Model the fold of this input.
Amino acid sequence: MDGARLPGTSADDGDRIVAHVDMDCFYAACERRREPALEDDPVVVGMGFEPGETHGAVATASYEAREYGVDSAMAISAALERLPRKVDAVEDPALDVADAGFYRPVDMEYYESVSDAVRTILHDRAPVVREVSIDEAYLDVTDVTEWDTVEQWAARLKGEIRSTVGVPASVGVAPTMSAAKVASDRDKPDGLVVVEPGDVREFFADLPVEDVHGVGPVTAEELGELGIETAGELASEEPDVLEARFGERGLEIYRYARGEDDREVTPRGRPKSLSRESAFTEATADREQLADRVRSLAASVADRATSKDALYRTIGIKVVTPPFDVNTRARSLPGPVDEPDLVESVALDLLDEFEGQRVRKVGVRVSNLSFAAGRQASLGGFDGADDESESVETTAEGDEGDPGRSSDGQVTLTGAPWADDEGADDATAGSLEGQTTIDDFRG
Ligand code: TTP
Ligand code: MG
Done:
């Protein structure tokens, strides 16, 4: 990948091979699985819908139904205007049966069972799986395939899902989670798109800004007002313009648009690290103000670790100084602990190095996590319900490398900025600073 890199980020994009699997028109595909006669016809699945009725909303529509303009979230009544029911078309000479579809009510229990079957295959085939919704998951497949064989690998995975479970999937493969997600969407249905390391920035360039991770409809509209329509334009905007308009989040979407995404695929409930960070309205060098903020972040992180039964061996801070310099410092302990006081004292100690410097943002992080035996964090289901909050805590590893040793045998780490997974750390900043919104952040 070309373009500027943040200090400490990996120089090699090819580090990880990430696959994103997203099932095609999932609920409709499930309906077809148990009712094969629906195979080539338009199928609409309605939420709050009952056969013969016109109320409810479209949960999903098969690709054939989408050609009639039927799509998720549309009222069933509106969908029926575009695509009448087969049964009605049979009886009404004014309607053409060929231009009519099948309408089915949502049956979550059944879809969950199909999802479970897909999930079993994903876990069989990939060492690291992160389920994000009923029909979507990220896989880290670095250890089971190579860049020059990953296309066949992914094709086999799709084939296995299709032949074993009987539903179609689209797969995107890329060196980052956000590129993999966009790639899986690129050639739907039954798609398979591989974005090789080095091609990520180019792959993003012509995409609409909405495709950039963290950019929802509201942000996209505001970017439009700045004349930014594509990810490529976002990637070449001046970062301070974006920061002035969107705060810290402007820098995040800027990085994502540049293909920079060091989030790591982690199984749900088992984060690699837990972190909290918080921005100041104005950069400050005030020692007490900084220490206060670090104390409250340390308490929050330690609390989080305790509630997850996580023990940590490394405690770190992140200090962002103007203009956008991200500094991380960390210290490793002789063994894993769950000691909130230690998180605070180590974090404050590490902060000392920045005495006198103006700081715009601070963060506290615990990493090198292990989980208390017998009290494992749940790996969760396929429903994605707690994904947002979980991703708040999931930050990239990558700063564990190349440690320098200090005299007392503890390890001091410096290096990579933390990934702000899902941008949700700003939600925390908001709760402390009372000013951040995450209105249009998508998972
Ligand atoms: P999606 O993966 O967004 O959609 P999809 O699988 O139907 O179609 P695509 O081929 O574009 O991936 O969502 C998965 C399921 O979630 C979908 O089948 C139905 C449900 N869903 C809703 O109930 N309401 C919605 O607004 C959306 C978008 C999805
Ligand atoms: Mg889908």
